[in-house]
TrEMBL record:
Name of the protein: Ig-like domain-containing protein
UniProt feature, compositional bias: Basic and acidic residues: 44-57
Record's keyword terms, sorted: Membrane, Transmembrane, Transmembrane helix
Domain (Ig-like) ranges: 18-99
Gene3D superfamilies (UniProt xref): Immunoglobulins
Organism: Poecilia mexicana
InterPro entries xref list: Ig-like_dom, Ig-like_dom_sf, Ig-like_fold, Ig_C1-set
Superkingdom classification of source: Eukaryota
Stretches the record annotates as Disordered: 42-62
Membrane-spanning segments: 115-142
PROSITE patterns: IG_LIKE (PS50835)
Pfam families (alphabetical): C1-set
Lineage: Eukaryota, Metazoa, Chordata, Craniata, Vertebrata
Length: 150
């Protein structure tokens, strides 16, 4: 019995020094867990398996799996990368395409600002928790001391 799952493809980061980009394919919420996640690439109408010389790392959990693949930037700009998930509960195959573009500066800036906002939000939550805990501790101390003598 196949249940709902989410399936997405991310551009993780671009390394300007080595000229690589990390792509991640994530399949989560699958039951039973995914059987196989694979990469292909396409140029025009020609589809082929992703080359073996590109490094990839597989990460699996009980309800999710991911594959991170390092792709040379010049290759990324010339091919559509396809992540394919084949699921045993009914042999479902889903494809998502990532088309590389040479002008990613605005996307990188947006990603950077999103990360900054996330860090700011995380910091605010930590400060809020500290203030709450200190206030609670102060109230507990004042409560155990009892009323001040007159």
């Amino acid at each position: 019995d196949l249940k709902y799952f989410s399936f997405c493809l991310f551009l993780l980061c671009s390394d300007r020094v080595e000229g690589n980009t990390a792509l991640m394919c994530l399949a989560s919420g699958m039951y039973p867990p995914p059987v196989q996640i694979s990469w292909k690439r396409q140029k025009g109408s020609k589809e082929e398996p992703a080359p073996a010389e590109e490094k990839q790392q597989e990460i699996s959990g009980s309800r999710s799996s991911a594959i991170i693949r390092l792709v040379k930037n010049e290759t990324l700009y010339n091919y559509d990368y396809i992540c394919e998930v084949q699921h045993e509960g009914g042999k479902v195959t889903n494809q998502t395409r990532f088309k590389g573009t040479k002008s990613r500066s605005s996307g990188e800036m947006q990603l950077s600002s999103n990360i900054s906002l996330l860090c700011l939000l995380y910091s605010v939550l930590i400060v809020k928790s500290l203030v709450y805990c200190c206030g609670l501790s102060l109230l507990m101390v004042l409560r155990t001391k009892g009323p001040a003598p007159s």
